[in-house]
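Predict structure. Chain length: 118.
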Amino acid sequence: MNNKITYHKEGDYFIPDLYLPIQPKKQIGKYGKLRLNYLKNFNKGLYTELLIDGTLKQHLLDIDECANEKVHVLIKQFAKSENVNEYLKEHHQMEWVQAMNNIKNRAEEIVLNEIIYV
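Prediction complete.
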């Protein structure tokens, strides 16, 4: 790692050549924002470290992607194990909606406790 600071001259002054790392252009999603809020309020040390290193946004994007994937996998697993399928959706819509909302809430609760609030 190169830790040398370079300078350029402006008039009579030497100005350090400092720059911020290039940040990803993607938007931070729901779980990334929840993680950011958690870090700011309950883990200020890690938040400050990621902010200073310039890796905070990438960390939040990684958390968001991981959490979304985990929620989708859990929803599929719960729906399959509880026999919430297309037949139920076709013939008993309200029961299907109720079951899917229940499954989604449980999946999100697991993700929040295992990924976001750690």
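Summary: The CA atoms of residues 73 and 104 lie 11 Å apart.
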